[in-house]
Every structure is written in C-alpha cells, then in structure tokens.
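Page 47, continued from p. 46.
Same chain as before, 307 aa.
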Amino acid sequence: MTWLSNAAIERLRDVADWPAPVGDRYEILEPLARGGMGTVYKARDRELDRLVALKVLSAIALDDEEAASRLQQEARVLASLEHPGIVPVHDVGVLDDGRLFYVMKLVLGPRLDEHAAERPLAERLRLFTRICEPVAFAHARGVVHRDLKPENVMVGPFGEVLVLDWGVALLTASASREAAHVVGTRAYMAPEQSRGESVDARADVYALGGILHFLLAGAPPDAAPLSGPRALQAICRKARAPAPDDRYRDVLALSADADRFLAGAPVEASPENAIERAVRFARKHRAAIVIITAYIVLRAVIAWLAP
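Result:
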C-alpha cells in the first residue's frame, strides 16, 4: 500500500475544490485561504477589469445543507453591513457543480496576530479600538460575530483594519433558534457560548477582551498569562468577566475605556488610589513638570548665588 504525503493530499484537495467555470465573468487565479466550509480565491472580474476575492463552498460540503446555508448567510450579513471595517460583497451565485459562491473586495495584508507582534503598545491599542468600530456597527444592526479572534482581523497595506469571517454570525432576532449550536474558537469563546446557550452582543465583548489579552501578552488567553499595565489588565478582565452582566455593557463602552487609557485618563474598569492617581498625573504632564521643576531649581540657585 502506498501512503500519500500531506502535501499530495493538499494538492488533491486543491484540485477537487478548484471552482468549475464561474460563467464568463470571473477568472480564477489562485487560492488565498481555506476555511472550514470554503476556500477563498483571487479572481479577475473580466467585466469591470478588477481583482476580487471569490469564496466558494468546499467540494466536500457540496451536500452539506448547513454549510451552504451558513455561506449564504455570511454573504447576506456582509451585504447588509456597509462599513469601512467590513469587506463589501459584490456578487453571489452558483457554480455549474451546484456550489454556492460569493464575490467580495480583494484586500491583501497580514493578519492581526502577524502584524501586531513588534508594534509598540500604543499602536496595538489603537488597532484594538479600530477593531471595535465595525463590531459595534454590526451590533447596532442586530448582528453578533461569534468568532472574533486575531486570525479573523486583517490589517491592509494602508492601515485599514478589517474584521473578517462572518460565517457563524448570528442575527439576534434568531438567537433562540441558534442556542443549541456551539460555534466559535474556544480560547475566545464566552462561557455561555461554549455551553450552547443563547448569546448576545456581550459574547463579542468577551471575545474582544480575548483579542486585547493577545495584544498585551502576545498569545491567546489559554496560552499565556495576562500582562501589561494594571489598568489595561483591568479592562481585559472586565471584558472577559464570566457573567455577561459583569462585562462592559457594549463594545463602545469597552473601546471608550481603552481610549481613556491612551489619553492618560482614569479607566472605568480600575478605580485609582491616591498614589496611582499621582503617578498617572505625573506621566501625563511629564514635560510641564520637568519645566516647572527646572524653573524652581534655577530660581533657587539664583537666589543662593545672589549677594
């Protein structure tokens, strides 16, 4: 018996998944990424002469009605969320072999876990608050992502921050019907989500707390202890509180607390004592304190030298 190598198996899967002709409009160029239910390809839109990304249901999921339904829901969710931090959908259709596909804007760039590694803390926090913006936008329109993690965030070549992979997104109006399904990534999943209970926007607040943990510790919450400034650790812990009612009330409140830290202001998650307040004041007004101190010292020296 001859065993196939992993590389050979991957090549066979690529051949099996390669989309049948997508009409006359789209020319498939190369695969970009593969997920649980589909593959994303770089393609050319011949009609408009532009490069696009085309997501196609995996060949092994051809008869999987749930996978097809999720891909269709993902396309509809993306089409309903017009925000700069969410990739827009251009088209949807069915291949000759019956597989569903949809076409979206092509954005190339590193994932957040790759991009943030060597960035200073302030830049990582600004990236975090920009991730919060499209998530808050989706929540305002009744959509919960349910799989927020660094691998599902892309940083574009011009600094764009895009939240990707809305394949398990939940419309809050249908939350009760979805309660039995456990979907997401364990390291970032809220306790109620991992138990298969009904979830709301606070499950995404929990996952965003996991992303903040990653940005502070350089690893997922289940792989490294929390580190960083005390106030930021408090923000992370509040976002990741086991009980939904103990978390931030929404994503905007979480983002606002991160903004307060960046501005040198006290944060909601961490009440200050007198010493911490004094230290924060000194850091925020360091330049002014140095100038005033130098002035006082100079005046003292002049007074001492005066006859």
